[in-house]
Amino acid sequence: MYPPRRTRVLGVDPGLTKCGLGVVEGVPGRPPGLVAVGVVRTAAQDDIAARLLAVEREIDRWLTEYRPDTVAVERVFSQRNVRTVMGTAQAGAVAILCAARRGLPVALHTPSEVKAAVTGNGRAGKDQVTTMVMRLLRMPERPRPADAADALALAICHLWRSAIAAPAVAAGQLSTSGGGT
């Protein structure tokens, strides 16, 4: 049997003002390694088209530079602020489009899935998620802003969930449709 292949995942915590990006790499059963982390920032007063274009350009640059095998994007969930939800959904769609343009698989994970995967608690706070991301990736400093830590948590979640799901998918026991894994 061959050793497991290293997988590189780009995690995207979508947002228009701050879009977190994080790349991790690893194999099942081992702690992941940090490849890169950052944030795309756009000014709230700028035109929506210019903001989305800036997000698209930066995600595309990351795809070129870091060559992930897959992309994990946070699934938009209902919030009270419709404007925030719209911006998050639009930025998430840009990330999905960038990946699709390159033929990369995309997975969507809910915030509670990510929290549960990284901390063991689907209701963990941002501080707890950031602390676990730091421990798992052996980071001496907190990734800032929180969107960067969230992007890394998304990538870790996908790396681990896809490793668990792969044998079941291969055996025909689990469907990959629906975008959850």
List keywords for this structure.
Nucleotidyltransferase, domain 5; 181 residues; 5 strands; disordered C terminus; alpha/beta; globular
Describe the model:
With 181 residues, the protein is an alpha/beta fold. It has one domain: Ribonuclease H-like superfamily/Ribonuclease H (Nucleotidyltransferase, domain 5, 2-Layer Sandwich). The chain has 5 helices and 5 strands. It has a 5-stranded mixed beta sheet with strand order 3-2-1-4-5. Strand 4, helix 2 and strand 5 form a beta-alpha-beta unit. Helix 1 packs across helix 2 and helix 4 packs across helix 5. The chain is globular, with a radius of gyration of 16 Å. The two termini are 25 Å apart. The relative contact order is 0.20.
Please provide a brief summary of the model.
The protein is an alpha/beta fold and 181 residues long. It has helices spanning 48-66, 82-101, 111-119, 126-136, 146-170, and strands at residues 7-13, 18-26, 33-41, 70-74, 106-109.
CATH level 1 class label: Alpha Beta
Total beta strands:
5
Name of the CATH homologous superfamily: Ribonuclease H-like superfamily/Ribonuclease H
Largest sheet: number of strands, sense, barrel closure: 5 strands, mixed
